[in-house]
Amino acid sequence: MFTCYCQACRRGFYLHLFKGIVDITPVFRKSGFDAITGGGWLFWASPGTQTQLSIQIHKKMNVVKKLNDPNLTAKFQQYCGVSSKNVENCDECQKNSKGRDNKDLKTGDRCADCRVTAPRSNTRHALLFYLFSYASSLGNEVFYLLFYPYCVWNVDSVLIRRTALVWSLCMYVGQAGKDLLWWPRPASPPVIRLETEFLQESSMPSTHAASATSIPFMLAYYLYDRYQISPYLLLPAAVVWCSLVCLSRLYLGVHTILDLLCGILISILVMVVTSPFWEDFDWYQQTHPFAPFVVLTTAIAMCTVLYPKSKDGSCSHGDAVQIVAVLTGVSIGSWLNFHFQFTSTNDHSGPYDVIIPSVRDLAMQILRFFVGVVIIGLLKVTLKEITVRLFSKLFGLKVPNQEHPSVKLAYKFAVYGVIGFSVVFLVPFIHCMFGLERESYFKEVV
Question: Which residues are catalytic?
Answer without folding.
Answer: 208, 255
